[in-house]
Every structure is written in C-alpha cells, then in structure tokens.
C-alpha cells in the first residue's frame, strides 16, 4: 500500500524535478501553503496570448507536494489557459477518486492517484494545482474587468 | 546492536492503566511516540472526570449547598495538590489557566503592563512560539526590546552568553525548561540566579518537563512557571501558572468577569486577592480535578524513577538511531530529554511520518511551532519521536524497523 503512494514516478519528480527554479522575467507569480504541514509552493509562469508558455515552481515540502508541482509544470506548459483549467479539474477528480487514472491522458500524474488511500495527503498532492488555479482565476478576473 | 537493558519501570504494566493502549475495535494497537504533543490519559484521570460530572458537578465558589461545596472542595484540593507537586509555598501561588500558552500570555499582559520603553526581555533562540509571540507583541506595545539568547552549535544555552546579554534594562528572562525539538534540559536554576542578580524576573516554560523529571519551583527560584495538563497525562483545556506571591499580588487583572472581584458598584470596583483575581469566569473544573488524578498517577510511579527510566530509554534510542545511515539527529547527545528530532537523507519528515503511520507508529513531523529554531538549524521541518513512561525498548525497535522501511521506500542506499 505504501508503495502505491511513493511510486517510482513520484520519487523521480521529487528528486529530479522538472521546472524547479525561477523565471528571469515571470509574468505571473502566485504562492500557496498548507499551514498544517508547512508545504509551500510558488508558481511563476508566462503566457503568450492564451497559451501558457513557461512554468517554474519553487518551495519546500513533502515528496508528494513537490513531485506534484513538478508534474504540473511539465503537463501544463504549452496548454491554453482553458485547457489548463479543464486539466486541473481532471486532476482533482483523479485525487478524489471520481475518475480512474489513465496513463494516456494523464501520464505521470496518474501516479498521484496513490494518495486516495491517504486522505491527509490529498492536500499535498493538490497544492500546486490550487496555486495555479488561483492564479488563473486572478488573470481571468483582471481580463474581464478590462 | 545495542546492549542496554531498560528495566527500572514495567512499561507494559503501565500501559495497562491506559484505555488507549487496550486494543479496541476502531483501532489497531498503536505505538505512540508523539508524547511531546500530548500524552495519553490513564484510566484514573478519565474516571475521576467522569465521576466528577456524574456525581459532583456544580459550579465552584458559588453554591453553599452540599454539592456546590463539595465541588469547590475538590477544586481547591486540586490546587493544593498542584502546589505540593511543584513545591510552591502555598496554593494561592497556583493560577489555573487553559494551558502553557495562556499562562505565558497572562504574564505578558499583566506583569508586562509595568514595562517601560527601552526595557529588555531575553528569550532563547530555541523557544516555542508560545514563549516568543506574547513577548514580541508586548515589546512592540511598550517600545521595549526583545533580546534573543542564541544557542550553541551543540544545541545548548551558554550561561556566559546570558551574562553578556543581561543589562540594567533587562526586566525578564523567559526560557523553556526542556526544548520540544532539541530535547536540551536547560540549567534553569542557574539562569534564574543570573537573571535575579541583574534585577530581572524569570519565567520557565515547563510544558515539556513536568511529566518527565522532578521539579521544585522554590529550588529553581523562578518567578513564574508554566505548564499544560495534557502533556502530563492530564486533560486538555487546563494548565497552570505558578507565580511568587509577592509578584502575583502586584499584577492587574488578566480578564474581567465573575469570580475575580470583591465588590462591584457602578462607580467602584475592588478586585479579589490572588489567585481569584487572575481567574475570571468559571474555571475548567472537571479538568482541574482530572489533573489532580494525573499528578497522583505520576507521583505513584515517582518522578525520579520516570526521569531515570526515560533517560535509559533515550540512550537506547540514541544508540539504535545510529544504525540508520543518513540520519541526522538534532540536539545534544551527552544528556537530553526523551525527544528525538531527526531527518533521514533527503526524505521529507512528512513522508517519514506517513511511512511510519502505515507501520502503526505515531510520530510528529513539522516545524514543532519553533520557526526561528528551524531557521537556526537550517531545516524547516524534522521528524520527532517523543517518549513517555509507557514506551519501552520494543517501541524503539519498531521505530528503527520503520526507519529502515523509510529508506527502502525512498530507495536510499
Ligand atoms: C515547549 C512548549 N511550550 C509551550 C507549548 C504550548 O503548550 P499548549 O499548546 O498546551 O499551550 C508546547 C506545546 O507544544 C511546548 O512544547
């Protein structure tokens, strides 16, 4: 059971994170934390029109929260903001157990389904996605008010 | 392989006094190593509280009828017992609070009123937020200064360093008795002596010590001494502030309400004497009565025996933890309390906690409410196993096995 949580893919992303670091000229920056356990994730990204062109993350925390941020940076780069929002919804559904993991559409992220048996860790897995979702919401709100 | 044999206390017999350790339907039997956060409660404590609510429940210091008088008597007997437990001179020096946090806040907001701009308060770098934030807020309010007494690389407090921080502006030295992260046992008696020589008052945060070693407030000669019931095998929601009578008598009220006045008229209020003046409102009566039972529980075993036993067990743990490659332990090793904060390789403490949880071992992971100490140690989080009198070598063995499992899951080699 514990091996389902800490799958090879998770450990890979934890130890060789994709997109960890900072952008020289981040267009958008947003952060979030789980005060209870101290996980922190900061997301920086750039957009070109509707497309997210570059995502970097920084922060600290458990392997689940950091691997998840790495997976997100990898999966959402090159997606439009609408696609990203839809993708984020899919990830929440996966974490909650509403959809089954599908390697084809979700790739490495399927491994996050392992948290289902560890309810207290779902927050760790969803942290980075919440941070980006909030940032996109903010963007949408400013766009609409213009 | 370690060779120490820990025998001075029969931990298994002690566990039998705790319903929590009696396997029951909802719970697999758990190896509980999170005693620094809170201890489990012996049946005697639970039963004393049930007995109070079942047969003696009434408000205290109000009813002159039989049950009310009995409730008041039980409450005041508990206060007597607490005074005796700490070797305070008299029970009026015992103020009932809801815990260590409130005890320290009480001192900061009452005694702290007398602070002048430029006055200094010394706290150590290893303090829990409960002994940082009330002082931070106080010095801000009063234009005073907070001075931080740095720890040594070994994780101790150096008295010479304190000597150099004390000035004629120092009004208070507030330090923890035992560190909830480093497990350092601070030389509180010497600290109080130095502080007093400089004309300062002293407060000891004893949250982590009272359940694990004998304490004597007259011998320590501290001005204030704070602890929580729930880390001492007692209930949550109750704590104690000990203060020397001559200081308590000078304090303004902490909260205002029932029970703390002599007389109220629209144009004039006169406050009650101590301890009532500092205890507005209905106190946690059942909890105080439960705490009484907890003190009896501890003293029936004997605090010097507990101290010796936990130190033996700690030595065994220190020895066995060396078997784990890549394990970094924080705090002194020559002598320490039964708390073991550590990291293993690049594995995050929460992941250590989760792996151990699947092995039915409960430990704490996180910053342990001591962010500044984490900064000093260069680690935002640690895993922490903390011992109590019902733990034994088998629990340490299980922890070691669990840590090997952590290394295996995280493919550390
Ligand atoms: C050293 C120390 N001080 C203060 C506290 C706060 O105690 P409480 O939360 O019971 O008020 C704790 C508890 O974690 C502690 O370990």
Map the helices and strands.
The complex is a heterodimer of chains A (146) and B (413).
Chain A: H1 2-5, H2 8-15, E1 28-34, E2 39-48, E3 51-60, H3 63-76, H4 81-96, H5 103-106, H6 122-145
Antiparallel strand pairs in A: 1-2, 2-3
Chain B: H1 11-15, E1 31-32, H2 43-56, H3 66-86, E2 94-97, H4 100-110, E3 120-124, H5 133-142, E4 145-149, H6 159-165, E5 170-176, H7 188-197, E6 201-205, H8 217-220, E7 224-228, E8 239-243, H9 245-248, E9 261-265, E10 268-271, H10 285-301, H11 303-321, E11 327-330, E12 339-344, H12 349-358, E13 361-362, E14 364-366, H13 371-377, E15 382-386, H14 393-409
Parallel strand pairs in B: 1-13, 3-4, 3-5, 5-6, 6-7
Antiparallel strand pairs in B: 2-8, 7-8, 9-10, 11-12, 12-15, 14-15
Helix pairs in contact in B: 2-10, 3-10, 11-14, 12-14
Bound molecules: pyridoxal-5'-phosphate (PLP).
The site of pyridoxal-5'-phosphate has 13 residues of chain B, from α4.
């Amino acid at each position: 059971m514990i091996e389902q949580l800490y799958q090879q893919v998770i450990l890979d992303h934890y130890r060789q994170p994709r997109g960890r670091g900072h952008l020289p000229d981040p267009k958008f920056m947003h952060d979030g934390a789980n005060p209870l356990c101290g996980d922190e994730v900061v997301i920086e990204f750039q957009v070109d029109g509707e497309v997210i062109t570059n995502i970097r993350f920084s922060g600290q925390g458990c392997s689940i929260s950091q691997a998840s941020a790495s997976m997100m940076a990898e999966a959402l780069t090159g997606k439009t903001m609408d696609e990203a929002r839809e993708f984020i919804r899919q990830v929440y559904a996966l974490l909650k157990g509403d959809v089954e993991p599908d390697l084809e559409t979700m790739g490495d992220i399927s491994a996050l389904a392992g948290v289902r048996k560890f309810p207290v860790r779902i927050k760790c897995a969803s942290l980075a996605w919440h941070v980006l979702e909030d940032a996109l919401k903010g963007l949408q709100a400013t766009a609409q008010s213009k | 392989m370690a060779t120490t044999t820990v025998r001075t206390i029969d931990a298994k017999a002690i566990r039998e006094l705790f319903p929590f350790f009696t396997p029951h339907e909802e719970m697999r039997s758990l190896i509980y190593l999170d005693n620094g956060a809170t201890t489990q409660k012996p049946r005697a404590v639970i039963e004393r509280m049930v007995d109070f609510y079942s047969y003696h429940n009434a408000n205290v210091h109000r009813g002159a009828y039989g049950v009310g008088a009995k409730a008041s008597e039980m409450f005041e007997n508990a206060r007597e017992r607490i005074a005796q437990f700490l070797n305070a001179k008299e029970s009026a020096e015992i103020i009932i609070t809801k815990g260590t946090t409130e005890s320290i806040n009480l001192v900061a907001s009452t005694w702290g009123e007398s602070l002048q701009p430029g006055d200094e308060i010394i706290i150590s770098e290893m303090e829990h937020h409960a002994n940082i934030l009330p002082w931070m807020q106080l010095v801000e309010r009063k234009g005073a200064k907070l001075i931080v007494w740095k720890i040594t690389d070994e994780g101790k407090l150096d008295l010479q360093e304190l000597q150099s921080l004390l000035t004629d502006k120092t009004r208070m030295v507030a330090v923890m008795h035992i560190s909830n992260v480093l497990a350092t046992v601070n030389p509180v008696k010497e600290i109080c002596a130095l502080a007093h020589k400089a004309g300062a008052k002293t407060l000891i945060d004893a949250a982590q010590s009272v359940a694990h070693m004998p304490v004597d407030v007259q011998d320590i000669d501290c001005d204030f001494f704070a602890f929580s019931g729930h880390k001492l095998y007692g209930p949550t929601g109750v704590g104690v502030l000990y203060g020397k009578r001559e200081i308590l008598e000078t304090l303004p009220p902490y909260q205002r309400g029932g029970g703390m006045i002599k007389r109220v008229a629209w144009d004039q209020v006169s406050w009650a004497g101590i301890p009532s003046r500092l205890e507005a409102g209905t106190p946690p009566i059942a909890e105080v009565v439960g705490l009484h039972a907890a003190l009896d529980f501890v003293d029936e075993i004997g605090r010097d025996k507990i101290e010796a036993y936990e130190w033996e067990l700690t030595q065994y743990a220190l020895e066995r933890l060396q078997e784990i490659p890549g394990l970094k332990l924080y705090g002194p090793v020559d002598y320490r309390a039964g708390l073991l904060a550590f990291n293993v390789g690049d594995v995050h403490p929460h992941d250590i906690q989760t792996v151990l949880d699947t092995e039915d071992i409960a430990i704490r992971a996180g910053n342990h409410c001591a962010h500044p100490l984490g900064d000093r140690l260069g680690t935002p989080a640690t895993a922490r196993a903390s011992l109590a009198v019902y733990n034994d070598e088998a629990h340490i063995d299980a922890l070691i096995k669990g840590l090997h499992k952590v290394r295996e899951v995280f493919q550390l080699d």
